[in-house]
Amino acid sequence: MKRLIMILTLLSLTTDLSAQTYVCGDITGTWIHENSPYIMTCDINVVDSLIVEPGVRVQVGAGGFKIEVGSGDKFIARGTEADTIIFEPYLGDNPGSWNGISLNNTADDDTLEYCLIRHATNGVYAYDSEPSINKCTIYGNSWHGVSLSYHHDADSAMVSNCSIFDNGSSGVKFQGYNRYGPVSATCDIYRCTIHDNSGNGVLIFSGTYWGGDDAYAKARITNCTICNNDSTGIRAYAYRGYADASIINSIIAYNDGYGVANQDVRAYIGTNDINYCCFWHNTLGDFSPDISSPGFGENWGKNCNKDSCDINYNIYYDPLFVDTANADYHLQEISTSVNAGHPIILAQKVLDSDSTLPDIGAFYFHVTTGDANGDGRISLSDVVYLINYCFKGGPAPVPIETIGDPNCDCKVTISDIVYLINYLFKYGSPPSC
After folding, report:
1. Do 149 and 295 share a domain, yes or no?
2. Could you count the other beta carbons within 10 Å of the beta carbon of residue 285?
3. Residue 12 domain-assigned?
4. Per residue in 233-271, is it b (16+ CB within 10 Å) or e — as a string?
5. Cβ neighbours for 152, distance < 8 A, ≥ 6 positions apart
6. CA 281, 282, 287: angle at the middle one, nearest 5?
7. pTM of the predicted model, to two decimals?
8. Beta-strand pair 101-107/67-69
9. Separation of alpha carbons 313 and 293, rounded Å
10. Preceding omega of 294 cis (within 30 degrees of 0)
11. Domain of 230?
12. Residue 7 in domain
């Protein structure tokens, strides 16, 4: 019996060892889950293309190695929610243990999706490449989580639905730099949580090698939550050239510097670039002193939820995260950021999955428009509830302009009562904003 157990143990060890694949040097083809983990013993240079399948684990041996993808080559690492692809050191969890994933002059077809990238220098570094980085977790790197650098015109890089945190410098650095001629570079950062980084949440940088002003870098930041970073939430810095950002539907809170700041006179984030955002408790203030205009940064009017806002519909309330201390940045039901965003996102009309106006921040809170009494369904009781509110001094729907406004005209009136009656009894359109 003891001999049988020993044989089975040896077979188990042999099976575990055979699943390891050692890789080094020029690589092409596909890395599959059955041969995982792939253990890097030197730099990987992708030749033609490398496809990494769901569930693969890539472990990097000591020596500061990296995955390098050069001009004309392609890197596709597309996991799934259930089978994430992991890039990490072979041993330990020290930041800077390897040199990350480097994409150099590779056009716009590189893809990282459902990847976890940790404990490198830069998690992902792209030079004159325009990757799609989607639904990735990037943390514990010694420098930037994602660094995008452009010496030529670029406009299609996308970082979306990512969690980027605990990196040694900025969560995302975006740079346009004139080394070979004029440069105009833009990128999109969409529905990302960028938090607890040792530098800025997002840094937009421009510069020139030979002097002059013909370098322009602009980040379009949409529906992001940028919180608890050790410096400024979003910083524009122009070492020659111009640095800029547009910021919409985003929460910028609890950063140790400013919420949004221009570092010098060539940084051009202006008041018109900041719309439908929530600012709260940024240590040095929500904006650097140069970002100001009448009606901006102060109570000017009311938004659709009847909450005070400035002239650009920015609000200044506690976003009421579920658990800030443990980095759960979902919104509570009573958050003023629910249904306080703008529906034109990346040049398209976009509603949240509950068919209501977008919430501010990376995560939306599901509500049922028309469910005035908040019992989770739309029925005659909601009609009665609205009648009592409108005509008998009854309690208001909470939030009033979210669940009590089925015709979505930003006010609760008899028109909403009629709308619900038509929907319930006359085959009218369902409530939807």
Report:
1. yes
2. 15
3. no
4. bbbbbbebbbbbbbbbbbbbbbbebbbbbbbeebbbbbb
5. 128, 180, 181, 183
6. 120
7. 0.87
8. parallel
9. 14
10. no
11. 21-349
12. no
